[in-house]
Task: structure prediction
Amino acid sequence: MELNQISYSIRNNSELYIQSRENAFQDALEKANHYAELSMLNIQKVLRISEENIQQNVPMDSRALYLRSSERAEAPDSSTIIPVGEMEIRTRILVVFLLE
Result:
C-alpha cells in the first residue's frame, strides 16, 4: 500500500471558529483603540468587517513522513512513520472603524 497524503481535520470546529473570530476582533479593537488614542480621537462605531478563515494542518515532524530511499532498501518490512500533527485555525479580519 502506498500513502501519498495525510489530512488532519476536526469533526466539529464551529466553536473553534467562533473563538478565533472573537480573538481576531478583540485584537483589531485593541489596535484601533491605540490608534484612536494616538490621534486623540474616539471610536464611534464599526463601519465594515470582512473575514478570511484559515485552517492549516501542520505536521510536527514532516521528515518522519517519508523514509529515505536507503532506509527503505535496508528495511523493506518497516512501516512508514506517520507524524503527529497540529491543527491551526486562524481568522484574519479587516475592520473599518469610524473615528471622531
Observations:
- Residues 14-99 form one domain.
